[in-house]
Amino acid sequence: MSASGGFITFPATLRVIDQPYLSLIVPVFNGALRLPGSLEQLREFLGSRPYSWELVLVDDHSDADAAAALDAFASEVPCVSVLRNDRNMGKGFSVRRGMLAAHGAYRVFTDADLAYPAVEVDKILAALERGADVAVACRVLLESRYIMSPSFFSYLYTRHVMSRCFNALVRWTLIPHVLDTQAGLKGFSARAAEVVFPRLTIPGFAFDVEALLIAGKHRLRIEQTAVTYRYDQEPTTVRFTKDALTMARDLVRIGVNHWRRRYD
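-> structure tokens emitted (264 positions)
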């Protein structure tokens, strides 16, 4: 175990000499009950790929049970590393940290609950292999599919309307051509990651908007990809409202940064 810059890294299981083809970055915060199943799915997926890979798990100061699950997994599986934040910093901070620590020629991040099944990573990787600098999962393309319980239909409608309103605001003010900025599955070439992520300032959920704005500003090619998405959980109204207000505030901050040319 070692400390550097206020962070603790454990364990140092990934020290590659050759650049892996794919780096998969997964931010984690709690979720100990579901985490072992998700990690096993990632192990099976990556283990069946014909290319070299690394899995970078970024623990955003999870509880003891989740932290123990990550450590146990990393100790058993080669090419896995755990980066541990010394306090809860937010998804954007964790993704940024994982992307900058990664070594892969292509770098993809996805959510720990695997709302996007692991095989959807192949679609993002294929877009990058076709020449995209940035590949974005897009849940509103006609080819995209949802997997969910009928009991979540009302939630899906509410979330969809709010998501469309948020995205309309983003497209009107900052990013006119991306239909689904908030999808939790995105990929970057190594060069694109090294352009975008050092410039990020948003530690929370609106980091996606900031990352895509920076990519566009630096003339990186962005490709949107249809995906399969699974709804398993419905957040509380209080949480949903709080997240929406925080993201609206962050949009203002991103706009100010853009006006001040901070992303140049």
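The longest strand covers residues 22-28.
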